[in-house]
Each structure stands twice: as structure tokens, then as C-alpha cells.
Specification:
Elements: E1 9-12, E2 20-23, H1 25-28, H2 31-45, E3 52-56, H3 60-70, E4 74-78, E5 88-94, E6 99-105, E7 114-122, H4 126-137, E8 141-150, H5 156-159, E9 165-170
Parallel strand pairs: 3-4, 3-7, 7-8, 8-9
Antiparallel strand pairs: 1-2, 5-6
The structure holds adenosine monophosphate.
Length: about 170
């Protein structure tokens, strides 16, 4: 199995001081690393039936769409406010300083649909938890939350403790 960690570039103090940003663009440049990442995600999903992959703006869209295609599932974007054109549900969440909001189209998920929630990085878990809340409110059943990267020291997994959580790389 290819070690994907060699494709992750760490950028200190980006986008602000104290953050060690995990840059996935070296991985995206390499077709073998893309294929390996998709294969590892699929292995962790197994043969579970999935109706939709719900992915978080914007880096979540990259592998989210690839996974949807492989799983014969639909794809649903969760976006920052004002980006989605049709009617939306929204949920506000707390940031370190202030608040932010995520939105989803009201027709994106039908009751009982089986969902994979995907993003590139699980940090504090606030973003993923908010996205899960939107999916649950719409009646979706979250089968798994998956991430390329998990920052273990931020304990984001604790916020998602009612869900199955998978990450390909842990730091
Ligand atoms: P959180 O809500 O704290 O789990 O933050 C998750 C979101 O912020 C994800 O959408 C990530 O893309 C982004 N993020 C947080 N920390 C990092 C990091 N160190 N490197 C890259 N992206 C990050």
C-alpha cells in the first residue's frame, strides 16, 4: 500500500500564525496517489450501500465527487453562505473567533438516504459536526464520516462520536 503521507506538504503559519496547514495539492498532482486515496477510501466503506456523498466546500469536493462516482451515488455540496442558488437550509457554528454558517439545498437529501460525509481535513470537528447536523435534520442516515487527514491533537473525532469516522492519514 502506497504511503500517502509523502504527498502531504505542511505549510507553517498559513493562513495565519500558529496554523500548520496540510496542503494536499502535491497529492492531487500525482495520478497514482489519487487512485490510491480513492482505493483506500473505498476499502474503508466496504460494500455498504451509499445513496449520496455529501462534501464540504471546497477541498471536500475533490475526493467527494470521485467517491460518489465510484460508489454509484449522487453528490451533494455543502457550501458557505450565499453560494448555493436554490432554497437552502443553514446551520450556524462557532469558530475560535466568531461564527460561520454552512448551507445545503433543501432538495439535496431525501429521508432515509444513506450518506457518506466527506472533507479533506478533520481538525476541531466543528465543520463536520455542523454538516452532519444538516444531513440529520433532512432525515439522512450518516453511514460514515471520512477524511483524507485527521489532526488527532484537536480531538475532532469526539464531536462526531455518534458516527463512524475514518481518516486515511493521522497526525
Ligand atoms: P474544523 O472545523 O476545525 O474541523 O476544520 C475543518 C476545516 O478546516 C476543513 O474544511 C479543513 O479544510 C480546514 N482545516 C482546518 N485545519 C486545517 C489544517 N491544519 N490544514 C488544512 N486544512 C485545515
Amino acid at each position: 500500500m502506497t504511503n500517502l503521507s509523502k504527498y502531504i506538504r505542511e505549510i507553517p503559519d498559513f493562513p495565519k500564525e500558529g496554523i500548520r496547514f496540510k496542503d494536499i495539492t502535491p497529492l492531487l498532482q500525482d495520478s497514482d496517489a489519487i487512485k490510491e486515496s480513492v482505493a483506500q477510501f473505498l476499502a474503508r466503506i466496504g460494500d455498504q450501500k451509499i445513496d449520496k456523498v455529501v462534501a464540504i466546500e471546497s477541498r471536500g469536493f475533490l475526493f467527494g465527487m470521485l467517491l460518489a462516482e465510484k460508489l454509484n451515488a449522487g453528490f451533494v455540496p455543502i457550501r458557505k453562505p450565499g453560494k448555493l442558488p436554490a432554497d437552502t437550509y443553514s446551520e450556524v457554528y462557532e469558530l475560535e473567533y466568531g461564527k460561520d454558517t454552512l448551507e445545503i439545498h433543501t432538495d439535496a437529501i431525501k429521508k432515509g438516504e444513506r450518506i457518506i460525509l466527506h472533507d479533506d481535513v478533520l481538525a476541531t470537528g466543528g465543520t463536520a459536526k455542523t454538516a452532519c447536523n444538516l444531513v440529520k435534520k433532512m432525515g439522512g442516515e450518516i453511514v460514515q464520516c471520512n477524511f483524507l487527514i485527521e489532526l488527532l491533537f484537536l480531538n475532532g473525532r469526539n464531536k462526531l462520536n455518534s458516527y463512524s469516522v475514518e481518516s486515511l492519514l493521522k497526525y
